[in-house]
Amino acid sequence: xxxxxxxxxxxxxxxxxxxxxxxxxxxxxxxxxxxxxxxxxxxxxxxxxxxxxxxxxxxxxxxxxxxxxxxxxxxxxxxxxxxxxxxxxxxxxxxxxxxxxxxxxxxxxxxxxxxxxxxxxxxxxxxxxxxxxxxxxxxxxxxxxxxxxxxxxxxxxxxxxxxxxxxxxxxxxxxxxxxxxxxxxxxxxxxxxxxxxxxxxxxxxxxxxxxxxxxxxxxxxxxxxxxxxxxxxxxxxxxxxxxxxxxxxxxxxxxxxxxxxxxxxxxxxxxxxxxxxxxxxxxxxxxxxxxxxxxxxxxxxxxxxxxxxxxxxxxxxxxxxxxxxxxxxxxxxxxxxxxxxxxxxxxxxxxxxxxxxxxxxxxxxxxxxxxxxxxxxxxxxxxxxxxxxxxxxxxxxxxxxxxxxxxxxxxxxxxxxxxxxxxxxxxxxxxxxxxxxxxxxxxxxxxxxxxxxxxxxxxxxxxxxxxxxxxxxxxxxxxxxxxxxxxxxxxxxxxxxxxxxxxxxxxxxxxxxxxxxxxxxxxxxxxxxxxxxxxxxxxxxxxxxxxxxxxxxxxxxxxxxxxxxxx
Amino acid sequence: xxxxxxxxxxxxxxxxxxxxxxxxxxxxxxxxxxxxxxxxxxxxxxxxxxxxxxxxxxxxxxxxxxxxxxxxxxxxxxxxxxxxxxxxxxxxxxxxxxxxxxxxxxxxxxxxxxxxxxxxxxxxxxxxxxxxxxxxxxxxxxxxxxxxxxxxxxxxxxxxxxxxxxxxxxxxxxxxxxxxxxxxxxxxxxxxxxxxxxxxxxxxxxxxxxxxxxxxxxxxxxxxxxxxxxxxxxxxxxxxxxxxxxxxxxxxxxxxxxxxxxxxxxxxxxxxxxxxxxxxxxxxxxxxxxxxxxxxxxxxxxxxxxxxxxxxxxxxxxxxxxxxxxxxxxxxxxxxxxxxxxxxxxxxxxxxxxxxxxxxxxxxx
Lengths: 567, 365
Hints:
The structure holds 2 protein chains of 2 kinds.
Chain A: E1 3-10, E2 19-22, E3 27-31, H1 38-49, H2 54-57, E4 70-76, E5 82-88, E6 93-99, E7 104-108, H3 111-122, H4 127-134, E8 135-137, H5 138-143, H6 149-162, H7 169-271, H8 280-294, H9 298-316, H10 325-352, H11 366-393, H12 397-454, E9 462-464, E10 471-475, E11 480-483, H13 489-507, E12 515-518, H14 526-539, E13 545-549, H15 557-560, E14 563-566
Parallel strand pairs in A: 3-13, 3-14, 8-12, 12-13
Antiparallel strand pairs in A: 1-2, 1-4, 4-5, 5-6, 6-7, 9-10, 10-11
Helix pairs in contact in A: 6-13, 7-10, 7-11, 7-12, 8-9, 12-13, 13-14
Chain B: E1 3-9, H1 25-45, E2 50-53, H2 65-80, E3 84-87, H3 100-103, E4 110-112, E5 119-123, E6 126-130, E7 152-158, H4 179-183, E8 189-193, E9 199-200, E10 206-209, E11 225-232, E12 235-242, E13 247-254, H5 262-271, E14 273-283, H6 294-301, E15 305-312, H7 326-340, H8 344-361
């Protein structure tokens, strides 16, 4: 039986000055109102046995005494040897001493040597597991009041097995399996995506090959268009030159013919006598006179009257101006001079076209060529828009391949995750089975005598299902095993204490460590409390008990307690 | 007074796929193109005489047409400014049949070296000795000595100075350049390509690897440069100009004494940046209380980076508590399985399974 003998605190939590707590065999009842430091004592015990990290110890630094923070726990091992573990939290140093009758032997102050020894002495080297196994807390007892206690008790046993409060292999396995399911769904989804991408990739590759054909065609058309455009450009340029020359020649010819006609006029002007001009009036008068004379005879009048009429008309006609020959010659001379000037200008312009020697036939193909260039231009635009559209619409195979690779990578990541979770589940199941197999028979066996004593021989037979951890107790009235939920509240409490006592021994590797009751009877009524006191008393014969409470009526425990410590 | 200004770049690897960047690969590929365009801007701004590309402009000898087109467009911009471009091909874009160099018409300001030996090209006060990359074994500077002349004499070479002592051993084999070759080259400046980080090669001539202008892998240092090389009064000055858009960075942390992922979160917060390509490598053997959900961390932090990867290289600690609880039994079973497994990958998977199981048992997951 491991027993705590003495706890010394200094600068730890509420205890700024050095303070000692002595522990005795049996029930050690630590009483104190809230915030007096009861839990600090439990914490100091834990901190002595299990190395706290600086973060864990920080809340226990005493702000009234910042220089010191230390504990020293003296205990007796299963083998009856007395040790003292001293911890200086400021320096982080621990020291293990063996106390013999008249001397103190320092065992070690090297961490890596201390930890295994403490594990040997206390059976645990993990604070959480130790706490979970040897502490019974208020909430755990409250849960036993629940009508569904069969499941509750089972859960709590599992928790103790799992080594962590409110944890269990069953819960962990359920979570792992949920994750696996989710991952598998993810893989399914991604596989569909990957198949789609693969098909998309194939079609993109096809499109790319048609695109390549289009691209080649485009390059060809572009090249041909360039050639033809150049050809056309040249031809059009020549045509322009030709047209210009033709126009110049036409102008020149026109001037030539004008000059020619002026020459003709001038020639006739030279030859011609000036025309004798008889006045219209004179002719008119003559015609009138002759007409009147002719009209003197009846037949003559036939001619005479019209003659008078014509004569009168002639008389009335305006006289034409008479142009003088000299003036005409001068006028045409000037005109001709101007034309000759124009011609000279044209001729000098024509000189520049000396090398332009085309015939109309040279431009026969021009229209045809224009048509060819236009159709090529159209073809080019068509191909260009086609290529652009295809390129914009369809992702490039390289891009799809990249997406495909990413999806495949994600699938393989998920598969890895599934694999890891499956492995975890497999070994967790194995571990669970192993623990159940290993401990349920021992639990059954060891629980019986304790149960017998604490129930005053009422219950003595317990069966625990290896697989389900269902707990059945033999009811003496009907001589049949019944589910725990059919037991009375008192019997349930007793069974629970019995199981916990047994389990802490089993999990510590058969080291009988103290049972620490952290105010578990907080809201018990008197009958339940009295029954429990008896149970605890019984257990205290086999195990040192540290009981903590803040409830004044728990002072009733004082009578039963072997050691009363008021904080 | 002769004054010549050059920009020296190399190893742009345009068109490369960054598989490790997953869905960001496409982005970073276009980043590289953007940086190339920035270099063109820089050439124009600095009014340089020429842009030198010391190999691996393209990641493959037959890059995508659209890429080549856009590169040609960039060169056209330099042509307008009367800036020449000299290209010595590299091992990624070697000069061979059907390669980008022979299949495309480059603008007249672009001079692509097509000879297997170093040959000079002279433009104004500048003489560039370059060569085409035709095989992996030729030692480009072997038996080479530049002619004596007034011009600024520059070598433009893609190759590896393997035998020159320097800290990191570069990949060997490619076109060895020996220190003795460099010393007797009679060149004023040697523009090298092949290594991806800025590196000065100490020899009798000014000799530099400019490194890639945009990071290509986690091997890259965070900052990348092009070199502005000025020749004036017979003196050569080399000024690195930072060009990278993204920053590659790797941080390793030993999680051995970590109790939670708080420290990892600290680091992820401290290093965040929208242009960071960040890799966090977790090492060490933290206790099983240390629970790690990389997926969760990635989800939380990847928005704060251009790209974030967390590599899990942590192992399980030696002294695991194998008590009588289910937890203890689980640890024992897994440990013996891990011990049996020789293959590192499967071993790591078992270690992860152990950590996972404990995480679920302890409800930290």
